[in-house]
């Protein structure tokens, strides 16, 4: 067999994903061309819509917050070798936790409420992830199928609760009551105003800070704690983990519950931060995009932050786009998402053999020259 | 007598709602028995439904629409195969990507072509699959018991319903009684052994995903040109996932999968009928509970509480030839 040289890190985690991303964007450009619009103009509007003015930044970072949480959620489970497709359902049920805490514990003072709301989301999200985790760990049912099923079960459950239980008397729309002022997360522009800085108002709220903190905590947890090590070991080789005295089942459950709790933080942003009540389908596919975010970010919090920013930009820019060019609806963003997942996730190995070959040839030639 | 009529109507609706599930579940079975996870059923169904409606509208012929749907889903299957079989990519991710891609692309192209907010224009009678009256149905219409069963329940469906039900024994025969089927199953259980016997694993798996594409294309066409009269944005509404659940529930076998599809179709039909109905002794049945039942049942089955569902052994593993 021919010898191959290991790729340096900058190619492995930098250049290769970037090549895949560019290919996805190139094909998106062709789609734009095919429906008769100008791709260059589309990119201009996208970038202006996402970063062109102060308010746009706020919206972009607000979307980014959701993607950081769902991306981190997917990544933690993935380090344990699990495909958690259920972030959507876990965030949805997490939203129920926040809402219940807000509606029934509204007598608590503001700072306590912040913690209680977060606990409400975490407990419900983690509990919803616990069942598929338990079934995977102890009964061997495949986590992909069970988490998909749990998304649908969550959706039915929430529709039932919103229509029959949480809907205030006399209201026709299936949504919960407004949550009290003291349970809302402060907007960033309000916080800035308190310090005398004027900022354009946007839905960006305190949960963005939570997202940054969560990223650092996930990084510490996965790479610098005993449990994180155990989770990575189980993900790399469950059999070897068993021999090393790590029980895979236990860590499958732990990883999934942390993943569920991280997904549920998305509900903090939406319910406590922006909508201030529980809406039907408020998760709006953020859970699924989290898969793309994590894969693009190579399951590392820093990569996830960059990928989340990219998707936040696409969401906010896409909204501007559908406003400016009527033939391009928000669906264009969905298409780009699909292509990005396809090329950076499913076809991530497409360029690898060729690049490895080229790099190997270059290295061998260089080594030969140096020897001569 | 009134109850009897009600039952006939409910079963009639069951046949209609389970048809797309049967076709898609068989599609999933072909792919997964050969070792390729197919989560893309939902997206492929959507793509098929869109192509069928768009082409049937332009050509005013449902059959050309059906061919277009099948061509679309075969292309998507090949894309899935290209990612999973050729490039050994992650099969779950590829499936999810195709679902998201098609959800956006069908709407986007729909708006570009027809400017009706992602819908396709309503199809004429000639551009849709019409109900077929089986021979002798009119004659026995008034015979008690047999009349309603034959006339209402069995007769009067469109051709795709009959194709779906015939596809089940056909799939069984292909899977268990032909050389192709044997090899297909072997490739999903032990690809190494198949390779040793001198049969190409990659070619076999590609053939399996193409079969899968043909079947799921028909289920998409059924939604938009037989059951409905146009394509609507995200009209599959999770049917691809229900079909997947039915396939798992049927333990990756054709006849049990048919039974699961009929059960899930029945629950769907019953949920529509039970909307707001107060049953004596039980009270109002929450429709959401009936809707969630297929998923709950599948989870219970997967947990091993109703028999064991054992997936094909090599499912989800790309084949790496030994060097």
Q: Tell me the CATH topology of chain B.
A: ABC transporter involved in vitamin B12 uptake, BtuC
Largest sheet of chain B: 2 strands, antiparallel
CATH architecture of chain B: Orthogonal Bundle
Cα radius of gyration of chain B in angstroms = 20 Å
CATH-level-2 architecture of the largest domain in chain A: Orthogonal Bundle
Estimate the helix proportion of chain A, in percent: over 70%
> What is the CATH level 1 assignment of chain B?
Mainly Alpha
H/E order of the elements of chain A?
A: HHHHHHHHHHHHHHH
Total helical segments of chain A: 15
Helices of chain B, by number, come to 13
Mean pLDDT of chain B: 88
- Low-confidence spans of chain A: pLDDT under 50, at least 5 residues? none
| Separation of the first and last Cα atoms of chain B | 70 Å
Helix content of chain B: 55-70%
As a percent range, the share of strand residues of chain A is under 5%
C-alpha geometry of chain A:
globular
**Multimeric state of these chains?**
heterodimer
**How many domain modules of chain A?**
2
Secondary structure: number of strands of chain B: 2
Keywords (chain A): Cell membrane, Membrane, Transmembrane, Transmembrane helix
Subcellular location (chain A): Cell membrane
GO molecular function (chain A): transmembrane transporter activity
Membrane topology (chain A): Multi-pass membrane protein
